[in-house]
Amino acid sequence: MPELPEVETTRRGIAPHVEGVTIEAIIVRQPQLRWPIPDAVQQAVGLKVEAVRRRAKYLLLDTARGSLVLHLGMSGSLTVQPQSKAPIKHDHLDIVLQGGNCLRLNDPRRFGACLWQGVNEPQLKLFQALGPEPLTDAFNGDLLFNRSRGKSVAVKNFIMNNHIVVGAGNIYASEALFMAGIDPRRAAGKVSRARYLKLAEHIKAVLAKAIEQGGTTLRDFLGADGKPGYFKQELQAYGRAGEPCRRCSTVIRSVVIGQRNSFYCPKCQR
User: Fold this and answer.
1) Are 44 and 68 in contact (CB under 8 A)?
2) Which of 21, 24, 104, 249 is the most exposed place for a label (fewest CB within 10 A)?
3) Topology classification of domain 141-264
4) Sequence ranges of the chain with CATH classification 3.20.190.10
5) From its phi and psi, is residue 267 left (phi > 0), alpha (psi between -120 and 50) or beta?
6) b/e map 95-118, b = 16+ CB within 10 Å
7) What is the CATH code of the structural domain delimited by 4-127?
8) How far from chain centre, in Å, is Cα 191?
9) 267 by DSSP, 3-state: which?
């Protein structure tokens, strides 16, 4: 599933082709994605895209009337293509742009989304109660420490909770916990303030580095230019079960936490 760095990479890839450009049409080939595509998305037709933003793993194409809200789901990709290029299987949506290009959503599993957030309408539920963005000053170790007190949930699940902070998905949570030397199974409420200060900095660092390198190549992800990301080459823990730790040579272990595979070094992480 594309995580925050992959979505941010997509945002940066499409923004130069979309911002300041008028939407000429929205072609819906498959109206049933994660949620039905509402007719309200057609309100964007004839309007200029003023900005392309990201909130958590959602992309927002802002217009004077409201925002098209896009999500890549588990297997989706959003690419800029000539509108004249024939659609292929799973090309479910085209946002046709003035000048001959389109923003095309390909989503084999149909867990993606295209919704509408009107300027004067109540905020969509999916945006309510989201935590801060991890690469902003609103997110820090003190926030993690204060929100974790009394919680017995595993620290990995705690930092993956979008109500705490958005974007610390499975890959990057595993990597940040490895970098901070924290066992992912440890109860969130048992982690000290000092360790949370370190963990917050590593979450920021690993996400920033992944964005810089273009996301992580796993399964179906492709960037907006059609090229895969390269961060997978740098992974220290995720997906390396049975391989030697790059710090101490202890064998990396895998354990299921919250129905997700988690990877850690039993020597380096306590």
Assistant:
1) yes
2) 249
3) Helicase, Ruva Protein; domain 3 (1.10.8)
4) 4-127
5) alpha
6) bbbeeebbbbbbbeebebbbbbbe
7) 3.20.190.10
8) 26
9) coil
Q: Active-site residues: which are they?
A: 2-3, 57, 260
Instruction: Decide the pairing of beta strands 253-257 and 113-118.
Output: unpaired
| Residue written as token pair 């946002």 | 95
pLDDT in tens, the chain (270 residues): 678 998 999 999 999 999 999 999 999 999 999 999 999 999 999 999 999 999 999 999 999 999 999 999 988 999 999 999 999 999 999 999 999 999 999 999 999 999 999 999 999 999 999 999 999 999 999 999 999 999 999 999 999 999 999 999 999 999 999 999 999 999 999 999 999 999 999 999 999 998 988 766 555 556 677 666 656 667 899 999 999 999 999 999 999 999 999 999 999 999
Tokens of 222: 């492709």
> What six digits make up the tokens of 64?
């004077």
- Residue count of the chain, please give it: 270
* Measured CA distances, 249 to 46, 202, 268 (Å): 59, 21, 10
Q: State both tokens at 156.
A: 């990995």
